[in-house]
Amino acid sequence: MNSINTPAINAEKKQLNPKTFVVWLFIVASTMLFLAFSSAYWVHRQDGIGNNAWVMIKLPWHFWLSSAFIILSSFTIEAAYRNAKKDDVFKVPAYISFTILLAGAFSLLQILGFQQLMNMGYFFSNKMPGEISVSFIYVIAGVHLLHIVGGIILLLVTLSKAVNLKIHRKELVFINICKTYWHFLGILWIFLFLFLYFAN
Hints:
Elements: H1 2-13, H2 18-50, H3 61-85, H4 92-119, H5 132-163, H6 173-199
Helix pairs in contact: 2-5, 2-6, 3-4, 3-6, 4-5, 5-6
């Protein structure tokens, strides 16, 4: 009797959590959005270079340093998840807090990077046609930063749950969602940064 019911139970356990499904759906949609941005950038770049109307600029150092912070934040959120799996619930809030601090540092550096672009005389809307290259930087990095803000909100909710001991070995769904989304943001930024660096 038990052997008959086991496959059904296992199949039920393997069903994708609705919240996890929504996050993955959002990740796919976001990936498609940034691929569209990257494709548009590349097409305009080819046309601009061909017409001698494309401004090459050096990305502010703030974007370089922010990349290091977001890489570090992936390690801290992973540490939070692993400690939750081990039921070391008192370490989970600390690692999530570290992740939030690193996320804040990333966001601040991004904003300073935009400020540096403005100090260089490059704004979102520019007079010269070739300066559309800078507009793309604002759009791509800016929309990613909005995703980061959403990620920070998710981290704060996760921290609240962790502090209230609602994240542990038997309840990993929410922190797994948070971890997955945050890793996505990190990988996405590294891709975007390298794309802008080499394509520019």
